[in-house]
Design brief:
Layout (H helix, E strand, L loop, with lengths): L1 H11 L8 H15 L4 E10 L5 E11 L6 E7 L20 H20 L5 E7 L23 H8 L10 E6 L8 E4 H6 L1 H13 L6 E6 L5 H9 L3 E5 L25 H17 L5
Parallel strand pairs: 3-4, 3-5, 5-8, 6-7
Antiparallel strand pairs: 1-2, 2-4
Helix pairs in contact: 1-3, 3-8, 4-7, 6-8
The structure holds N-[2-(1H-imidazol-4-yl)ethyl]acetamide (AHN) and zinc ion.
Length: 290
């Protein structure tokens, strides 16, 4: 319920599009919220160059728990929303709420931060909210064929090359991306299996032990270019992606993905609970003597 309320609050700012007032207002709220849970909050406030050469503000927000402990777990999600619903059949040029795409992972992580402020995990935890993940070219401006640098995950790429702590490397990382929808399904994703197979095994086994096997499927999907790709390749932290995929959907993502339907009506507290409780079990299991 808390994670749900945290998503509704993010949505209330309006679409969190880089360069808008909603971005500034939501960043300020996220920062203040995390500061209420830990004194160790760092905001990376930079400008990044998007696909069309324009510079936009990028605010990565990182909250640390037990910063003195060297064994660390990175929990992350992107908090920006895509400027267009270009997968919508009708309203392609409009922004959308991004309750799931952007809001949901952050909602779960804020609730984990709140819990960590009341009960220490015995291991170091860094919660990173990355900006400007989803400002890649809309489908009407995408140039296929010619080689493009990756135009997504710009906040994460900045952090991976300039981590909030010098020489930062976590023991492992978990990315949450679209983890709030009713009946979400999380197959094991290709880059996660390549760089962090033991983390995939651990998280899926933990979820199944807790009774969440209906969400965490023992099925594989190919590589998805998401924030974890850069955490793996640029930072060196082995990082998995928990991402809602729908094998019956033409593009492989959930049917509300990048459409006007990505709003609070798709969010289900049962899914948020399954993901949040699984993560808590995984991180408390890493404590010495657990
Ligand atoms: C791309 O579609 C480039 N990446 C999938 C990751 C994503 C987009 N997550 C949310 N929006
Ligand atoms: Zn997206």
């Amino acid at each position: 319920d808390s994670a749900y309320a945290f998503i509704a609050k993010q949505v209330s700012f309006g679409p969190r599009i880089p360069g808008t007032v909603a971005q500034t207002n939501c960043a300020n709220w996220l920062t203040a919220k995390l500061k209420s849970y830990t004194t160790h909050v760092i905001v990376q406030d930079v400008k990044v160059e998007i696909y069309n050469g324009k510079l936009v503000p990028c605010k990565n927000i990182i909250a640390s728990f037990n910063p003195e402990i060297s064994k660390r777990i990175l929990l992350c999600a992107h908090w920006d929303t895509r400027p267009w619903s270009d997968q919508d059949s009708l309203k392609k040029k409009s922004a959308f709420d991004g309750a799931d795409d952007g809001g949901s992972g952050v909602g779960v992580l804020l609730e984990i931060a709140r819990l960590l402020s009341t009960q220490q995990a015995g291991v170091g935890i860094d919660i990173a909210l990355f900006d400007v993940e989803d400002y890649g070219p809309p489908e009407w401006e995408a140039h296929s064929g010619e080689e493009q640098p990756i135009q997504y995950c710009l906040g994460t790429q900045h952090w991976a090359e300039n981590p909030h702590v010098e020489n930062y490397r976590a023991y492992f990382g978990i990315l949450l991306d679209m983890v709030g929808a009713k009946n979400a399904t999380f197959p094991q994703e290709g880059i996660s299996l390549q760089y962090a197979p033991s983390v995939v095994k651990n998280v899926w086994a933990t979820a199944h032990t807790l009774g969440y096997g209906n969400y965490f499927l023992y099925e594989k999907v190919g590589a998805i270019t998401d924030d974890h790709a850069f955490i793996n390749s640029l930072n060196g932290t082995p990082c998995i992606d928990i991402i809602n995929m729908d094998k019956t959907s033409p593009n492989g993502f959930a049917r509300h993905w990048h459409t006007q339907r990505d709003n609070m009506s798709v969010i289900d507290t049962n899914t948020l609970k399954a993901v949040g409780q699984t993560l808590l079990q995984v991180i408390f299991n890493e404590a010495p003597g657990a």
